[in-house]
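re the bet — no i am not wrong, look at it urself. input seq straight from the record:
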Amino acid sequence: MPKCVVAEDESLLREALLEQLGKVWPGLEIVAACDDGASALEAIIESQPDVAFLDIRMPGLTGIDIAEAMKDHSPHTQIVFVTAYDQYAIDAFEKGAVDYLLKPVTYDRLSATVQRLQNRATKELNAVADLLQQLNLGNGRSIAAFQGAPKNEPLVWLTASSGSETKLIMIDDVAYFKADNKYTVVMTAEGESLLRKPIRELLELLDANIFKQIHRSTIVNLRAIASIARDDTGKGIVKLKTRPETLTVSQPFMVLFRNM
């Protein structure tokens, strides 16, 4: 049973979050529900929970302070920040947060966060199991073959420019990326932003199971696709769920949709 620490200094909001977690994640064990930063950090160090839901503004230590301390004392605990202030988002993700929830937290948004936490936990367990199998089952391979840093986790969020603003964008919210000279346009339901990274470098950082290149200048989120059809030339025409424009799938990439 996964363990969790919740830190929220407002009692009504704390009880509401606990109630929502009980519905969204029935198998989660709440080992501590704290109303200040110091007691939350103490509970995290003592119980080493799988996940911590941290308010950012609390008496004493802030959620950001706790996350910084957790790097040394509870590095494997996944962090979700819960706050009424969106200006801390970039700092939060730089501290390794899995997600950033704005108050009031809705049931659907919390469900998406729980799904992300569970998916990450499953990937980590599978990676450990695979490595142990390779190293421990007498398959004749050298341990040296598995030395070196593991593959980085796919991007969860990014920052991109929109006019004079810098936006924090969750990768799940991206419909597609499109090359723009040395930069990349990031398209979401809300509009476009500019990422200062060429698309060829971006492709290496994305989850290959979700983001697919469909043109030399376009990467699409498969979850954002509403439908796809072929035109008279054999190219694909992609319709999106959250954007009005269509995308072209060049012929070499139509193999992705060969079962259509």
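see?? Residues 131-151 have pLDDT under 50 and may be disordered. told u. also The longest helix spans residues 107-136. so pay up
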